[in-house]
Amino acid sequence: MTEQRVDLEERFRAELSALEPRPSRPVEQPLEGVGLTGAQCLDLFESQATSRHLDLAARRLGSAKRGYYSIGSSGHEGNAAVAAALRPTDPALLHYRSGAFFVHRARQVPGLDPIRDMLLGVVAAAAEPISGGRHKVFGSKPAAVIPQTSTIASHLPRAVGLAFAIERAARLGVACEWPSDSVVLCSFGDASANHSTAAGAINAAIHTGRQGVPLPLLFVCEDNGIGISVPTPPGWIEQSYGIRLGLRYFDADGCDLLDAATAATQAVDWVREHRKPAFLHLSTVRLMGHAGSDVESAYRDPTDIAADLRRDPVLATGRLLVTSGVATPTEVIARYDEIGGRVVAMAELVCREPKLTSATAVMAPLVSRHPDLVQADVLRRGHTVTQGDSATLAQAINQTLAALLDRDNDILVFGEDVGRKGGVYGVTKGLQKQFGVRRVFDTLLDEQSVLGTALGAGLSGFVPIPEIQYLAYVHNAADQLRGEAATLSYFSQGQYRNPMVVRIAGYGYQKGFGGHFHNDNSIAALRDIPGLVIASPARADDAAAMLRTCVSAARVDGRVCLYLEPIALYHTRDLHRPGDNAWLAIPSDTDHIAIGRARSYGDGSDLTIVTFANGVPMSLRVAQRLSSRGIRARVLDLRWLSPLPLDDLLHHARATGRVLIADETRHSGGVSESLCTALIDAGFDGPITRVTSEDSFIPLGPAAATVLLDESRIESAATELVTR
């Protein structure tokens, strides 16, 4: 790697020094046959050379153990031309090799110093202005660059959602930080273009445009022909995306500044005018390996490496400046070296900057909350309150969604089948007719695109409420939650947020329908995501209040909330016997349930049954039967599965001295494991036992009862615990 770095430097100076100076031309004069002036070429060279020197500095810092893992942009510096074609207010979601783009964009915004900012990231300094030393990312609030972290196409669905939401905000009169005529820029590599996430996002963009919905999005594929060590077949990107109906295709040599600038300008102008998606294919090279200490010679032919060196875009732009008479070889080399000197000097300065030194500091973006403001937003009135009738869980959710849509114009409700049909279970029935197709709408059948729409809408002033039809299907798009939604505030110190409330129909116990995809009880992968809020109401009044809390937490604090709805309880009316209507409740918009607060039933002193969702009515029936035998049990409905209501848990555990956890999720990786650990960590020394579902997928038909938690097991465990 050191040898190639030296070779780049020596080649640049040697080749430029060998050029004959040309007659000088005024820098304001356009170059022949193109729209760029000499001054513009010099300005772009400044950004390209700065990006190159930042790469070199990052490698030096890494070798000296003063910097950290860093992916370079060398060979991709032609993307500076894309930044020049855009406005500095156009939101950009960047590939990790779009360094020259970031430099050029930052140089267009007064007060920004891309050299210092990027080097602060390399050394993980707490003063780094976007992530605060948590990761090296391209991001800047003033420069409208939304941070992405080592993205392998996971940012493309968000880009689609952002382009959609900017237009939707303008049409609905929702305040949005992006100008209504913005173009969204999304760049990625040729290897990433093969990822299912990229294919799905690009398909969603075309699908949306096909329906006449505006989508001003420019995809930029920076194609260097290799993904780490795996070559991309020649012509693959053009073959894959150059002939897609509904996707305007542009291509250019990204190592030729004039060609790249011409194509980028044409592409940006086309998207801005037509408000449709386009694809710009930039042919680039990768210099100095994939990242860090990667040794290309271990897997690449020397002739291929040499061929890439000959296409060095920084050298090509330097040569252009000389051959067009804009500058002499000496002037270009002097400018290049002066930039290098500034980078070296700044690298020394940033090494002295403090790092993050505590877990509290690292986690600050995950825990900054305003519960009082959330409560105030929950209780904010829109219209006169009328007392409703008793409702089922599904009816309460429907009524609450309607009330929220009526009160606040920043609410969007969408997903598969939620519009005209009103959802598979009728939970969103009538909402589209009442509030229109711009606010309640169907999406294509792709969970990544559903969540990507929410991620973009949250950046555009909305509080999106997407629906994922079944819990099992969330796992098709888990990285949109883990890699995108949960990390944005963390890697931007809260400067960017993606408020959203994801409604998910889930859990088991459906009768006569399903199997393992329609009956799923696995939430471990969701509870493991830092900062995520997971609500799980069991009855109508809680469902209404908790949904309002989630929406307000999203709006006020930018929280990402998952709202798990027990399918089997959607239309449940009875609790103890047929016709008692004891599971109906009256939803109220004057109730507030704070995140992390449980609900208790009864004041029994012999036993606390801790449960949630379907386990609540089961445990209440068990508690009634126990009482007839003289065993007094109270039931604690957790309601929130992340964060867990630890204070309430400990209070009720200590009140009875015995805890039975009735957990309908799986024995391994289920909620009960965390509850047991929390009790032990807090010093609870009473007996604890748990009953759970089996470590199994849920089969079709009556066989489901063999692996799911049931009342008989809860009752047996409770009896044994009390009579030990």
Descriptive report:
- 42% of the residues lie in helices and 14% in strands.
- It has 724 residues and is of the alpha/beta class.
- α17 (447-458) runs parallel beside α19 and α22 (615-627) crosses α25.
- The longest helix has 26 residues, at 38-63.
- The model has no long low-confidence stretch (mean pLDDT 94).
Main traits of this protein?
724 residues; alpha/beta; 7-stranded mixed sheet; 25 helices; 42% helix; 14% strand; elongated
What is the radius of gyration?
Answer: 29 Å
Share of residues in helices: 40-55%
Q: Determine the number of helices (DSSP H or I, runs of at least 4 residues).
A: 25
The count of DSSP E runs of length 2 or more, i.e. the number of strands, is: 21
Task: Produce the secondary structure layout.
Elements: H1 2-17, H2 38-63, H3 80-85, E1 92-93, H4 99-107, H5 114-122, E2 138-140, E3 145-148, H6 156-172, E4 184-189, H7 196-210, E5 217-223, E6 226-227, E7 230-231, H8 236-241, E8 248-253, H9 257-274, E9 278-283, H10 302-310, H11 313-323, H12 329-350, H13 359-367, H14 371-378, H15 393-407, E10 411-415, H16 431-435, E11 440-442, H17 447-458, E12 463-468, H18 471-474, H19 478-492, E13 500-506, H20 524-527, E14 533-535, H21 540-557, E15 560-566, E16 599-601, E17 607-611, H22 615-627, E18 633-637, E19 640-642, H23 646-656, E20 659-666, H24 671-681, E21 688-693, H25 711-722
Parallel strand pairs: 1-3, 1-4, 4-5, 5-9, 8-9, 10-11, 10-12, 12-13, 13-15, 14-15, 17-18, 17-20, 20-21
Antiparallel strand pairs: 2-3, 6-7, 14-19, 16-18
Helix pairs in contact: 1-11, 1-12, 2-4, 2-5, 2-11, 2-12, 5-12, 6-7, 6-17, 13-19, 14-21, 15-21, 17-19, 22-25
